[in-house]
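Quick one before lunch.
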Amino acid sequence: MKTMLRKRLVLKEPYYSIIRVIGFILLIIIGLFIYYRYEMNSLLELNYSEKASKNILFSFKKKEVVAIGENKTLNAAFESDLYNEKYFDRYSRIEYQNQDNLIRNINTLIKKKYTNSEISIILSHGNDSDVTEFSKRDKVRYVEEFFAYDFAKLSLYDRYVNYSNVTGDDEETTVIYVNLDMDKTPYEEATEVKDFSINMLVNKHFKLDEDFVPKDLVKVNKKYTDEDDIQLNQETYNAFIELYNAASSEGLGLVINSAYRSYQDQTELNDFYFKHYGQSYIDKYVAKPGFSEHQTGLCFDIGSTTSNVFANSKEYPWMLENAYKYGFIQRFPSEYEYITGFRSESWHFRYVGKKAAKEIHDNDMSYEEYYARFLMK
Ligand code: ZN
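Model of the zinc ion complex:
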């Protein structure tokens, strides 16, 4: 008992100095922590994430980052395990995209000697897997030429190069035509369109399945047609009634001669023309089943109540001037045969909605071009 007490007394002095040392260390730790939080906050305020801010501090880059300010690519770089200090400046100059392998792909593209602006362009023209695929290949030329157009697609790069080599077309034309699959064989290599929408494109490169039926088909009132069973998509029909009333109020007479045609109807039509006029007539004038816009329920062949030849009627120039106000366009004008793939048809009008119809009318372009520029995913 006695010896234990003595031992405790002996320990007393160093025991206090240990507490002092620990206290001092604690003060330093608390001080450092406060300083750390303060430094973190200035990065968090610039919208760097907690993880990125921490990595910025521990790589002693805070001053540089604060000088640059908010920068999403830099944030992604500091969040990533693939951050490469050599590329600090380059990350800050490359436009951010929300892609899983963003930093991995940027690193690869930098190594392949692409410039910052080329890398920004590449990243913005495809999704994560397009960019990943693209970054695997050797450095290519004409990135800034083809991808100056925001509707150009990274995945189609080789086809752009081939097409422009073969045709000599400029980059913009090339991108539009290749996006529309015009470098592929019509009918044979057509892409199948599955979803109905008022903006859908159907032509010799975009086909409908045998079972495709448009949404909301309704029967057209006999007031608007001399035929027995004419059907249109409901929205198209409503727009047509507005158009019809506007024409009537100016003393003009419109009549629908044909509208929705099923795959089966189009097959029968092909058979009929084959019997009476032969294959070469069909090739020129009649769409094959699955390739006719009539299967969408969004278009009709219009006639005049006063003239047998629509192109000579007074309704025709009125339609060209006014149909767009109700959401319709002349689908196959003679000047666009090369891109629509169909002979000019003065009577065939297609519903695309008022916004698209106005833009197409004001800028005088084909529906194919409008689709490739603004609607295609
Ligand atoms: Zn038609």
